[in-house]
Amino acid sequence: MKVLAIDTSNQPMSIALVEDDTLKATTTLNTVLNHSIYVLPTIDNLFKRVGWEPQDIDRVVVAKGPGSYTGIRIAVTTAKTLAMTLKKELVGVSSLQVLASNLPPVADQLIVPFMDARRGNVFAGIYQYDGDQQLQSVVKDQHLAFAELLQLIEQQGKAAVLVGKMTKRIQRQGLTLPDQVELLPASYAFPSTYRLALMGEKLAPVKQIDNFVPDYLRLTQAERDWQKQHPGAKPQNYVEEV
Amino acid sequence: MTEDKLILAFESSCDETSVAVIKNGTEILSNIVATQIASHQRFGGVVPEVASRHHIEWVTRCIHEALDEAQVSYDDLAGVAVTYGPGLVGSLLIGVTAAKTVAWAHHLPLIPVNHMAGHIYAARFVGDFVFPQMALLVSGGHTELVYMPKEHEYQIIGETRDDAAGEAYDKIGRVMGVNYPAGKTVDEWAHQGKDTFHFPRAMENEDNLDFSFSGLKSAFINTCHNADQRGEKLNKNDLAASFQQSVVDVLAEKTMTALDQYSVKQLILAGGVAANHGLRDRLNHDMARYYPQVKMLQAPLKYCGDNAAMIGAAGYINYLHGDRAGLDLNAVPGLSFPRLTPVEE
Ligand SMILES: [Zn+2]
Predict the structure, then answer these.
(1) Is the predicted ipTM greater than 0.95, yes or no?
(2) Which GO terms describe its molecular function (chain B) (predicted)?
């Protein structure tokens, strides 16, 4: 299986071409402020290096969030458009799970990827490797206060490692990590699109590519305010073809 | 007989996701438009983050529907055109990213299009363009006079110094309890009322071609507030008529001044506010009276709002002139035609 994997969830932009279990080529840039400029030129360059045509791929695997709203939209728009236009398979993987996959399989250890979501909040999930050395979600990805996350980990009653970029904003809260929780060095907090592709190869492709959207894990401020003012309002189609 | 050129065009600069297939720059084979108005009406105006989220929900659907309806495949296309500005950056990025991806996947040339050129080319669906020409572009985000000495050359000779005309409609609409976008309702009310309030006409008598609507907006809001304080109820039709008369007077008179200064063969009326009946009627009247030899092309009502068909029409011209973008094309939210500075006499 030939796979293109894309992750632009945060500052790093990472693209990989993977065939079965072999990495053919990958590029990670961590100096990019504007993913829109670099994603397709990087994809184009990697395809040329490897000698693939766009049509050659079988599957596009994308880190679907959470992360920077603009970042996950660039990756997801590229991935869903490519899969649709070439009639290929599309797989979305949690951007937090991509970070968790930086750790080797260790039995009975919880892996807690997190990303700064501002104002003392993080996007985080709790993962663990199963007997087949596959990452499984133990507590679903969510948007929560960093303090809440630490409580959530303690409730699990197991040793856990935190994987993520410890920003000054989070540090400023002065929270101490519980005893059985260890923060890994920042070098573990870079996404590997090679492992993203490997995880994506094993998952079932999305059924309706048109309906595929990023996992923001958060409504927009405007929608949250609106919901407060309109309790019990039923979700409806707000977009219509004219 | 030359070969037909089909352009797949993308538009996502504000709150419409649209993809179209245009043949030879003039024939609309398909034009899929998904509008988010109902969503943003919850908030009284376009919320950029919400808009971006809707665009990503709709973009691929619009692509395959546009191709299906036009009954063409990627092999039939000559190029992919896309709006890359002006507009909301998060909205623009979805169309730009999708268009680049389609162009790359199918080895098609990528054609960058200025959204405002798109609005002008909506008028191309009703007649041939003859140069030199002038365009009055009026929309929610822009109000400008554009001089085109020849095809593919655009120069701003006058623009708004504050609010765009459409923006002013939305703001006074809010005061009268009309939800965004207010233009259509205010236009309807205006037709049932009279200009009894005589709001100011900004910069009517100046020689320059720039517009301003903030003074009018303030006068309108003050009138309403003062009446409120006196417990007086003003006639909404007369308010709408007075406001619209002032906007239309300014737009029409500036346009006539521009025509005095620039000799053109055609006047184009385009942009979302170009659907306004008061403005259309007034320009028809003024043109027949002062410039009967200048032909006016008004963008069809159906294509005054944002749509990809107009982007395909403008994109075709860019295509002929060799405009090509690389895969590093980015959204340019503040994109603008060059401003032509008037020559001092
Ligand atoms: Zn527009």
Answers:
(1) yes
(2) iron ion binding; tRNA N(6)-L-threonylcarbamoyladenine synthase activity
